[in-house]
Write a structure and sequence with these properties.
The protein is an alpha/beta fold. The chain folds into two domains: 144 residues, Rossmann fold (3-Layer(aba) Sandwich), CATH 3.40.50; 108 residues, Rossmann fold. The strands form two sheets. Strands 2-1-3-4 form a four-stranded parallel sheet, sandwiched between helices. Strands 6-5-7-8 form a four-stranded parallel sheet, with helices on both faces. The chain is globular, with a radius of gyration of 24 Å. The protein starts with a helix and ends with a helix. The relative contact order is 0.12. Bound molecules: zinc ion. Zinc ion binds next to loops.
Amino acid sequence: MRKSSILIVIVAILILGTAVYFSLAQKQPNRQSSAPKIAVSIFPLGDIARQIAGEEVEIVTILPRGASPHTYSPSPSDLVKMQGSKTLLIIGQGLDDWAANLASDLPGSQVISMDKDIELLQPPEGILIGEEEEGEEGADPHYWLSAKNGKQIARNISEALVQVAPDKADIFQANLSQFENKMDALDAEIKGLFASKANKKIVTHHDAWQYFTRDYGLDWIGSVVPSPGKNLTPQQLATLQKLIVDNGITTIFIEPQLDPQLSSTLAEDLKLKLVTLDPAGSAEDTKTYDDLLKLNAERIAATLQ
Ligand SMILES: [Zn+2]
């Protein structure tokens, strides 16, 4: 090889190396190490917060995916996760008190419930109508299962983000507007899935779906486990069986976070299908809050005639 050829090769290698260096550098997230951090209790809040915050605020979600917020006991490692965050966003209404209790161990941290300006519903009575529910406190906490409420949650999250990073308010506002448009479209899309269904009656494993059924015109007949850890009495189970038969129910919706045993037995006895819903977002296919709403809507719609 001639000297000039060697020179050309060396220059080419230098140019290529520089190009690769800069393209890799650009792929690094531009989150600065000084980005403020906030903690949230469960995945739906964490993902909405991620969409509004972009790279400007670090979001840490406490509940591991696959765990139920109703039955979770935090570990010391959850406290470590929250280190460096002075703000914790929760659902409230008793669902994620475990997270609020953790925050009380961190000096100077504030806990903000995301239910501001959301029309909260009382816990559903369903087949327990007329019976006193013991130990029920607060409203039905599953308000994130509605695209309309998702928009309001995003506004509440946005306010909290402005508190921790006031100089990024414009970015949060732009992301919020985009998110609100997306939720409007998703809301219409989900309504469309159910519009032509003749039988809109459903039976679920636990009482998570009241906001969803209200917004999308479904008729919630009852649930097998009124609230996690609480079983129906034999009389209530008999009532539920009768309702299932009388209302032409074909499917019981179970959930990955909760033991499906009672639903399985019921499905076997009454020859019903079991279909999995995912209210908290633990499946591989719910990468975003949007996925979570859409996936559940599609799974319910697929069982209705
Ligand atoms: Zn629940």
